Amino acid sequence: MIHIADASLFIIRKRLEGSIVTVPSVVEELRDENSRTTMELMNVRVEPPLPSFKTKVRTKAGITRDSEELSGTDIDILAKALEYSEREDTVLVTDDFAVQNTALRLGIRVMPAGQRKIKDVLIWEKQCIGCKRRFPQGDECPVCGSQMKKRRKSVGKNSL
Ligand SMILES: [Zn+2]
Fold first, then answer.
1. CA distances for 33 relative to 30, 37, 70, 106, angstroms
2. 132 CA distance to ligand 1 middle (Å)
């Protein structure tokens, strides 16, 4: 069994049997020292995603332009999971709802890293591209009038 893991696994520190693989962009996302140490202790293999599988993910998931829901890291991890799932028993470990959804559409098996339901972990918010203030909703910043973009706001590990 191969586990393809995004940052959730190393933040939550769930123990898994079998091999664990991740991508370089996930490692870059782990700013916190504890999660980096956890990753090292888990003997994780870090492999870059193959461009051909990134294209496959975008095509099959119907992502024609930059997705609001999926980041570059999300595409990378999905590409790695798709690559492995074509030749081995593979499960993608993620607490990200958008990634889970896309994985299922691609025929990739998924497993959450945390115990909580995904909707409790993932929260959306809007951030102003001008003054960078954050608001729960809206398209235009009520402070400076600039455009606001949708962002993912993760609940900190202390509350998990
Ligand atoms: Zn603003």
1. 8, 6, 25, 33
2. 6
Query: What is the Å distance from ligand 1's center to 31 Cα?
Result: 27
pLDDT tens for 80-115 read 999 999 999 999 999 888 888 889 889 999 998 875
pLDDT computed for residue 133 by the predictor: 85
Q: How far is the CA of 129 from the centre of ligand 1 (A)?
A: 7
Burial class (CB in 10 A: 0-12, 13-18, 19+), 159: exposed
For residue 152, the CA-to-ligand 1 centroid distance in Å is 18
Do residues 123 and 79 make contact, with C-beta atoms less than 8 angstroms apart? no
What is the rounded distance in angstroms from the CA atom of residue 27 to the CA atom of residue 98?
20
Give all domains of the chain, ordered by start, each with its CATH number. Answer: 2-111 (3.40.50.1010), 118-159 (no CATH)
Q: In this model, does residue 62 exceed pLDDT 80?
A: no
How far apart are the CA of 124 and the centre of ligand 1, in A?
Answer: 17
For 80, which DSSP code?
Answer: H
